[in-house]
Amino acid sequence: MTIVNQIIWDLTFLFAGINDPKINKAIIDAVATANTFEKTYRGKITSLSVDDLLKCLQDIESLEAKISDLILFSSLSFASDMTKPQAQALNDSVDKLSAKIGKQLAFYSLELGALVKGKPQIINESALANYKHSLERILRRVEHQLSEVEEQIIIEKDQFGVNSWEELQSKWLNTRLFDVVVLGEKKTLSYGEANGLLSHSDRSTRESANRSIYGILGKDGEVFSAALRSICNDWVMVCKRRKYASSMESSLISNDTQESIIGNLLQTIENGAESYRHYLKLKAKLMNQPVLGNHDIVAPLPGSIELKFTFQEAQELIIKAYSRFDPQYAAAVKEMFQKRRIDATPRFGKRNGAFCASYFNGKSAYILQSFNGTLSDVFTLAHELGHATHDWYMARSQTLLNMNVPSTVAETASIFGELLLTDQLLDSAKSNAERKALLCLVIDEVGMTAFQVTSRVWFEQALYASIDQGEYLDYKTICSHWIKSRDRIFGDAVTWFPEMEAEWTMKPHYFMANYRYYNYPYVYAQMFVYSLFEQYLKEGKTFVPKLVKALSAGSSVSPMEIGEIVGLNVESPDFWNSGIKVFERLIGDLEKII
Ligand SMILES: [Zn+2]
Question: pTM of this prediction?
Answer without folding.
Answer: 0.92
